[in-house]
Amino acid sequence: MSPRHASTRDRLLDTGMRLARGAGLRALTVRGVCEAAGANTGSFVYHFATRDAFVAELIERWYAPLMSGLTATVDSGAAPRARLRALVLQLAGWAAANSRFITTLVLDAAAGEAAAQRFLRSLAGRHPPLILRVLREGQQAGELRAADPLHQLLFLMSALALPILLTDRIAASGLAPRVLAATMRRFARDRASIEERLDWALAGLSREARDAHRH
What we know:
Elements: H1 3-23, H2 30-37, H3 41-48, H4 51-74, H5 80-110, H6 114-122, H7 127-140, H8 149-159, H9 161-173, H10 178-189, H11 191-205, H12 207-214
Helix pairs in contact: 1-2, 1-4, 4-5, 4-6, 4-7, 5-6, 5-7, 5-9, 5-11, 7-8, 8-11, 9-10
């Protein structure tokens, strides 16, 4: 593929993501993306063939850096608990940086956007197994209490990522007083607060906490 073609492809994808972040995937049209990118529809068809294929690649391009980073952390060779902490911080940071688009992606899938639906259905085989693997390794190493790893994953995500997404929606909806919504959103997204919640959660999952509870 020539540099000109590669440049056009990247420009279309960059433009598509910018438009999707603003108005959602459902609002993307071939003509609209092409006009905003300064490309013709023939180039779009050449590179992506269909709108659905374009949206699917857009989502994969957005998600790939997260998966790559998490995989590198899992394979880093650090102790399981240290890797678990790093994994959850990476995921929470990504959720904070992409909270609006994540919510939009879910809403678009619920409204029938096929590429978004396929992506969400595929998530069970993507980053969750990486975290589950480290949870199991932590249990085997005696660093974490024995329990269903999926239940532990749910606990961690409810403490870290879920508040980020929920407080964004609460702030956007206007259902809570503005000062309260802003404070909740700050606690949910602030790096130091995220790390504090994670340390609380990891303390609860530790073998020492289990042993203390037994006594």
